[in-house]
Amino acid sequence: MRALVLYGPEDLRCVDVAVPEPGAGEVVVAIEAALTCATDAKTWRRAAHPSLGPLPARFGHEGAGNIFAVGDGVVGFSVGDPIVMANSAPCGICEWCRRGRAGLCPDLVYLNGTYAEYVCVPAAIVGANLIVRPWDMPAHLGALTEPVACGVRAAERSVAGAGDMVIVLGGGLQGQVVCGEFARRGCEVILCDPHAERRALARAMGASRVEDAPRTQADCTRLRAMTPGGLGAHVTVAAVGDARVWEDAVRLVRPGGEVNFHGGPAPGDAVHLDATNLHYHEITLQASYHHTPQSVRTALARIVESADSFGRLVGDEITLDGVSDALRAGGVKRIVRPTRTRTS
Ligand SMILES: [Zn+2]
Ligand SMILES: [Zn+2]
Fold first, then answer.
1. For residue 84, how far is its CA from the centre of ligand 1 (angstroms)?
2. How far does the centroid of ligand 1 lie from the alpha carbon of residue 150, in Å?
3. Do 163 and 274 share a structural domain?
4. For the chain, first and last CA: distance in Å?
5. Are 114 and 201 part of one and the same domain?
6. Is there a single domain that holds both residue 9 and residue 139?
7. Are residues 166 and 243 in the same domain?
8. CA of 293 to the centre of ligand 2 (A)
9. Which helix (H) or strand (E) is 284 found in, with range?
């Protein structure tokens, strides 16, 4: 079978490897659709990520397909089942797992290798984060389960309720999902992004208002003026891993409000915050990373519920040969069809 293997920074090769055979507790999935991801773009450039392991390494972490083979002792799955899966599984017993913070589990077992015709799913993921999807759900929508679960998880951390105002900075996939989650709680969401098509998408996800991304202090002041009493939003979310955006998120929150830093910054990035503002206004700062088995299940339910809106979060189809170019270009998620080749 054909599979993408990362050998070093920006060195991703399509190689022929044996179709995996499932060990005890494992399942082999025939990938129908994988998705490119901003995390993959970063990992491709740096050739390093906590989930990747030593190089050369199989690549790609978002995908869905059908069960091709089932290992000894697997229950609840049969050959041919259409499935979705998350790219990790927590241990379920450590301090963080027991406190509902499974994304921080120090023993996460990761899945890599969805940019391939087949992938072997580790037993831990079969047990915790492999789910049969509805028969009529297209694989590319199923493959959204994992990234959507991260956005669901970000919103889960907030206590915001109906009538509260939320400002989301960044309209990439994470910002869109967060926007949808707060909108369905009855919050009034303002999503800010420099791209008109992302602002249009946010409308479809439930934003009550969309604005250009703030670039100056004056832009932040103008945004604040749109919030109740001009005092800022109850919740702000920095859905971009950019220190400047994180600082804006703190400028835009109202006294007593909460800020969520969602989106991975580069190693060593620092933010400058006004300590007086944080103290005298009791600002809650929190961050969100990864997902939990619960948010994975919620994500799948959301995609089933709003298939049309979520379908707009992915772009056109490419083959394995096109993944490097797609990661270089960035932008919208692309649907990777591993069984197709350029010539077929
Ligand atoms: Zn991803
Ligand atoms: Zn754990």
1. 14
2. 9
3. yes
4. 15
5. no
6. yes
7. yes
8. 11
9. strand 284-288
Q: How much distance in Å is there from the Cα of 11 to the middle of ligand 2?
A: 33
pLDDT of the residue at 343: 47
10-residue block means of pLDDT along the chain (344 residues)? 97 97 98 95 88 91 98 97 97 96 95 97 97 97 98 95 98 96 98 96 97 96 97 97 95 98 88 95 96 97 96 95 95 91 56
Centre of ligand 1 from the C-alpha of residue 179, in Å: 18
Name residues with Cβ closer than 5 Å to ligand 1, which is an ion: 37, 39, 147
Residue-level pLDDT at 344: 43
What confidence score (pLDDT) does residue 342 get? 58
Domains in the chain: how many in total?
A: 2
Q: Could you tell me the distance, in angstroms and rounded to a whole number, from the CA of residue 288 to the centre of ligand 2?
A: 16
Assess if residue 157 is contained within a domain.
yes
Give the number of the ligand closest to the Cα of residue 41.
1
In a domain? residue 300: no
The reported pLDDT for the residue numbered 330 is: 84
What pLDDT shows up at residue 49? 82
On whether both 10 and 109 belong to a single domain, the answer is yes
- Cα of 39 vs centre of ligand 1, distance in Å, is 5
Kindly state the tokens that stand for 196: 């008109």
Determine the structural domain holding residue 73 and report its residue range. Answer: 2-144+313-336
Contact 262, 288 (CB under 8 A): yes
Please give the Cα distance from 290 to 129 (Å, whole number).
13
Map tokens 């990234």 to a residue: 147
CATH number at residue 273: 3.40.50.720
Q: CA 38, CA 162: separation in Å to the nearest integer?
A: 31
Q: Identify which ligand lies nearest to the alpha carbon of 92.
A: 2
pLDDT of amino acid 52: 85
